[in-house]
UniProtKB/TrEMBL annotation:
Protein name: Acetate kinase
Keywords: ATP-binding, Cytoplasm, Kinase, Magnesium, Metal-binding, Nucleotide-binding, Transferase
Organism of derivation: Hymenobacter artigasi
Residues where Mg(2+) binds: N7, E389
Subunit description: Homodimer.
Gene: ackA
Described purpose of this protein according to its UniProt entry: Catalyzes the formation of acetyl phosphate from acetate and ATP. Can also catalyze the reverse reaction.
Keyword Ubl conjugation (UniProt): no
Binding locations of ATP: K14, H213, L214, G215, N216, G217, D287, M288, R289, G335, V336, G337, E338, N339
Organism lineage: Bacteria, Pseudomonadati, Bacteroidota, Cytophagia, Cytophagales
GO MF terms held by the record: acetate kinase activity
Protein's pathway: Metabolic intermediate biosynthesis; acetyl-CoA biosynthesis; acetyl-CoA from acetate: step 1/2
Length: 403
């Protein structure tokens, strides 16, 4: 059974194709600058018989008017001989869509119907940067893969188990009951995937875990019995940790000060907090590789930024250890979490009270797959688990449709 996983952004399309139940994708790709005359497609086909072999890669630069043109081009690559992966779009049984916001309506993967589409559209107001692009992806896939069953997997769904004390803000009640202003949380698919991998590795289904997703966006979750009990992103993905370009937690009065005495418009504040803050605002770069190099060269701004980034994560580890009333493991994942040894080292420094004892040699080794980085005597395991959101989406699609 072919499952096509689609992550449609405002000007990009990411995809992976799984020949289920094989958990390694057959191919994956990225379409960028959709809507321009210089769009690009990077399409990789993996050798499942010999996974160590590098993938066969095709790179194209071409005009792509819209997402529909982009997806047609992807289908052309999927069906092209030699090495055609499918003979026809009808060979795709399921399209699994990553949808950022499912509000309070969706706590699990959901078969897409006209009513589900209407709900995703209603949620545009809550996720103006993401849901409209996800919606376009659904409409295009319904035309291109007309025979397939379409499934939505929501980034918010995993956090629907948060208790009310964790998801409510101390605002007038009507703002929740009438306007649905609350914590939703994001990156749910990633937290759910790495938490399940960690629990399986520890052979402890009721493990108390703190999952730390550090990519461009960053968030943490407190997970027990496979359920999310709290998470650091909130009403939007702006809350919580210091991120590549987002501020994370700040006193809301800063916004009022910007909007009032400093004369910013709402749009400028939005841009400032989402696109110009975080590591970019602190250092001038949002890529940890550049910031790490600047730090090594003695740059004081990079040193402060690393400090602040790690300090915020440590604060949340403290908070979530309290939420969980104990801790079996912390899990680092995503681009920074999987690759940046210095971030991991800073996070685990002076955390003996919390039972974290990092083995710095293991931390420095660059190995693929799940890794345990703690010393044998560490009370709490320190794990690196590569995230696989597309695989998790494929799994949830297969589970939903086998029921
Ligand atoms: P996204 O949130 O867009 O899915 P990723 O999980 O791919 O992001 O993470 C992207 C970030 O990971 C980059 O901005 C970069 O800072 C960081 N990153 C990637 N590779 C490395 C590396 N080798 N060392 C340190 N940081 C890295």
């Amino acid at each position: 059974m072919n499952i096509f996983v689609l992550n449609s952004g405002s000007s990009s399309i990411k995809y992976q194709l799984f020949r289920w139940p094989a958990e390694r994708p057959v191919c994956s790709g990225l379409v960028e600058r959709v809507g321009s005359a210089q769009a690009t497609i990077t399409h990789q086909v993996f050798d499942l018989q010999a996974p160590a072999n590098p993938p066969a890669e095709t790179k194209l630069t071409l005009p792509l008017a819209d997402h529909e043109a982009g997806l047609h081009e992807v289908v052309r690559l999927l069906t092209a001989a030699p090495g055609g992966i499918i003979a026809d779009p009808a060979d795709i049984a399921i399209v699994g869509h990553r949808v950022v916001h499912g509000g309070e309506t969706y706590a699990a993967a959901t078969r897409i119907t006209p009513a589900v589409k209407a709900e995703i559209k209603r949620l545009f107001a809550l996720a103006p940067l993401h849901n409209p692009a996800n919606y376009v992806g659904i409409e295009v896939a319904e035309r291109v893969f007309a025979q397939a069953r379409q499934v939505a997997v929501f980034d918010t769904a995993f956090h629907q188990t948060l208790p009310e004390r964790a998801f409510r803000y101390a605002l007038p009640t009507a703002l929740y009951t009438e306007q649905r202003i609350r914590k939703y949380g994001f990156h749910g698919t990633s937290h759910q995937y790495v938490a399940a991998q960690a629990a399986a590795y520890l052979q402890k289904p009721d493990a108390r875990l703190i999952t730390i997703h550090l990519g461009n966006g960053c968030s943490m979750a407190a997970v027990r019995d496979g359920q999310s009990l709290d998470t650091s992103m909130g009403f939007s993905p702006l809350a919580g940790l210091v991120m590549g370009t987002r501020s994370g937690d700040i006193d809301p009065s800063v916004l009022l000060y910007l909007l009032g005495p400093l004369g910013y418009t709402a749009e400028q504040v939005n841009t400032l907090l989402n696109k110009e803050s975080g590591m970019l605002g602190l250092t001038g770069s949002n890529d940890m590789r550049d910031i790490g190099a600047a730090l090594a060269a003695g740059d004081a701004r990079a040193a402060l930024a690393y400090d602040l980034y790690a300090y915020r994560i440590r604060q949340y580890i403290g908070a979530y250890t309290a939420v969980l009333n104990g801790l079996d493991a912390i899990v680092f994942t995503a681009g920074v979490g999987e690759n940046d040894a210095l971030v991991r080292s800073r996070v685990c420094e002076n955390m003996e009270f919390f039972g974290l004892n990092l083995d710095e040699d293991k931390n420095q080794q660059r190995l693929p797959g799940l890794r345990e980085l703690n010393r044998p005597e560490s009370r709490v395991k320190i794990l690196v688990i590569p995230t696989a959101e597309e695989l998790e989406i494929a799994r949830q699609c297969a589970d939903l449709l086998s029921r």
